[in-house]
Predict the structure.
Amino acid sequence: MNKTICLLAIGLGLAIQSCNDPAATNSENTNQDTAMKTSANKSFQESIDGLNTDLYTLKNKNNFTVTLTNYGARLVSVLVPDSAGKETDVILGHEGVAGYHKAKEPFFGCTIGRYGNRIGKGKFTLEGKEYSIDLNDGPNTLHGGSKGFNAKVWTANQLSDTSIEFTLASPDGDMGYPGNLNAKVTYTITDDNALKIEYDASTDKTTVVNLTNHAYFNLNGAGSGTINDHLLMIDADNITPVDSTLIPTGKLQPVTGGAFDFRKPTPIGQKIENDDVQLKNGKGYDHNFALNGKAGVVRLVATVLGPKTGIFMEVLTDQPGIQLYGGNFLDGTEKGKGGKAYDFRTAFCLETQHFPDAPNKPNFASTTLKPGEKYMHTTIYRFSTKNN
């Protein structure tokens, strides 16, 4: 379009993208992108317990994008291209830090600590001394207590466009746990669309530690409906069965042929209505699987396929266990991104971990951490696409 026609068009009040000036169009798009980022960041910029929260972004060359907040050192979004190339957010969450701070469900995407999963009766003994910790799950302690690491503001340090670390100093007596614990979680994305999470911790007094991440996944897209159609594989021959309060009995139960047999890709909901006491205890799946392979070595332990998007997730870890939770306590009252209701069984969690209640089960791998020792844990969630 020449300048004369351009001026005429402006005089007539026609909007023709700055008269098709590519530089102006690019500038306009950049300004819009900046405005969106600023708006998103603002909703995460609050003060909680006198500490400032914010939003952080990791992005690789494939436009695999992860956003996080230092409130709970948590994942806010994981944007993955589906089989058609459409960007899909595969985790549940909120559009601002207030949503997480005031949520009925406090664990969306967060780092769990000081002890992930449950400790029976909120008690354990270390070096001859019994400790009583915060009870927040009936008679038991869940995910560290009522103000666990998910409810703390961590210190953020963005290392690069693809990596960020969060640190937290948990004081002696925090939620009843002994020792000053220094925890660090590092999130890194790689060129093969993997999200690597590395945990480490040290203490000045003997304590127990079991850190994990509590992302709620739906590979068809957050808020898109049931996850019972997702194809799940877990490389585990046994689970740790639980009592009616979801505390492990201390035994191992083979999965062969039953509702917990996911050794081959199987729809999550295929056997969810089976007459199995373990399913009744958990109101569905809320169980620890004793993983095959050598603990301490990062290995492939689980895969999941979202049938509508073709998004395929692989889970690799060095941990001995993984908790499958099927969203049994979601009830639609929680409104998340885009105002979508998070309904019953519309998300699943795969939490890599040491076994629940290990401090009270001497036959389970120890979760004790002593001064001079280092707690370390690596988990990788890797994304690609695959035909169903």
User: Anything to note?
Assistant: The chain has one domain: 55-385. The helical segments are 3-11, 17-20, 22-43, 97-101, 277-282. Residues 1-36 have pLDDT under 50 and may be disordered. Residues 358 and 366 are 6 Å apart (CA to CA).
